[in-house]
């Protein structure tokens, strides 16, 4: 069985890669998602949930920009340059994971006031929820395609060269 580069990244260097590339961003994103629901229903912008939501948004945005830069330079570019993609599922998984930087950086920019300064509190809430939703969709696409065996989509694993 062949793994996507996404799954190989998470399986290699246990438990560190799993922690750095999955656990930290997902726990922060899930904290944002849960507190987001509370805020959408309660509209209590002075609650502890709002503080958690805000700080988690800033931290995950900044953190994931670092993850993106690291993986783009050390995985995406070399895999592309060397023609080592493991088919359609591999490209979708890795690309989707890296695209998560857009909504997460958007959350950090919104929370720090670098974007959306002129928007009303309600408009900011809508934009924030949109960033969260986009991230959840992208992350789940990455996870689904990342867990599939690339051979399902026709990838044929190269045989190792005999010595």
Please summarize what this structure is.
This protein has 163 residues and is an all-alpha fold. Helices cover 72% and strands 0% of the residues. It is elongated.
Written overview of the protein:
- The chain is about 70% helix and about 0% strand.
- The longest helix has about 35 residues, at about 50-80.
- It is an all-alpha fold.
- The mean pLDDT is about 95.
- It contains six helices and no strands.
- The protein has one domain.
- α2 (about 15-40) crosses α3.
- The chain is elongated, with a radius of gyration of 18 Å.
- The protein has helices spanning about 5-10, 15-40, 50-80, 90-100, 100-110, 120-145.
Q: Which stretches of 5+ consecutive residues score pLDDT under 50? A: none
- The computed structural class is mainly alpha
Record field, number of beta strands: 0
Structurally, the number of domains stands at 1
Q: Biggest sheet, open or closed, and with what strands and sense?
A: none
Q: In percent, how much strand structure appears in the residues?
A: under 5%
Radius of gyration: 18 Å
Q: Alpha-carbon distance between the termini? A: 22 Å
Count of separate DSSP helical elements: 6
Q: Can you tell me the overall shape?
A: elongated
Q: What string, H for helix and E for strand, traces the elements in order?
A: HHHHHH
List keywords for this structure.
mainly alpha; 163 residues; 0% strand; 6 helices
Spell out the blueprint of helices and strands:
Layout: H1 5-11, H2 16-42, H3 48-81, H4 88-99, H5 101-111, H6 121-147
């Amino acid at each position: 069985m062949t793994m996507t580069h996404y799954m190989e990244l998470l399986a290699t260097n246990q438990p560190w890669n799993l922690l750095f590339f999955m656990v930290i961003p997902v726990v922060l994103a899930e904290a944002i998602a849960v507190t987001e629901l509370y805020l959408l229903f309660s509209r209590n912008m002075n609650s502890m949930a709002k503080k958690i939501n805000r700080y988690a948004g800033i931290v995950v945005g900044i953190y994931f920009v670092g993850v993106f830069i690291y993986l783009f330079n050390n995985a995406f570019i070399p895999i592309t340059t060397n023609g080592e993609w493991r088919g359609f599922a591999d490209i979708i998984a890795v690309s989707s994971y890296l695209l998560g930087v857009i909504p997460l950086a958007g959350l950090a920019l919104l929370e720090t006031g670098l974007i959306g300064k002129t928007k009303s509190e309600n408009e900011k809430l809508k934009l924030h929820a949109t960033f969260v939703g986009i991230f959840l969709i992208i992350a789940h696409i990455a996870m689904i395609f990342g867990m599939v065996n690339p051979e399902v989509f026709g990838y044929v694993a190269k045989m190792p060269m005999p010595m």
